[in-house]
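Lab notebook page, bench 4
Experiment: in silico fold of construct C2
Operator: M.H.
Input chain length: 160 residues
Purpose: comparison with the prior construct
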Amino acid sequence: MRNKKRKIKDGRWFREFDFTFNTRVFFTIKTDNFIIRFTGGSLIISDKNDRELARLGGYNYLYTGDVTPDEKELFALENGKHFYVISLEDFTQKRKITLPRSYEAIDVYGSYSDDGKFLYVPICKWLDNGYKYCLCEYETDTYSLLTMKEIKESKVPAWP
């Protein structure tokens, strides 16, 4: 049987996709202090000993994310038009960010910079002859968009 798990090699933390749909956990992040599971509709945040600390629900198609190097914030990207910033100090949603107009994040993952000052989110837009891909750079104080640069499809951090 083929392995249905895939690890992301870039970034600071262990991040893994699990395409075994009967588990209902599609993506996992393990940091020094947390284990975070994405089920599509919810986030399950546990301590490093796997004791559940919080469960946040009500999301749609929430499949990937990353954690800041200081482990204070979780970035959660939906397969769609938004991403969320969750506090790992009090487990509340701090922000909901809408991606640039007419763009979506489909089957991709984003990452924080090594120092946590920037967040990189790949997005796409359907044109007449195929997809146009861009990489958005957000600063992480207010999660304001700084730049949006076109990238080749081969450079898109995608998960399928």
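Observations: Residues 122 and 135 are 4 Å apart (CA to CA). The two ends are 18 Å apart (CA to CA).
Next step: discuss at group meeting.
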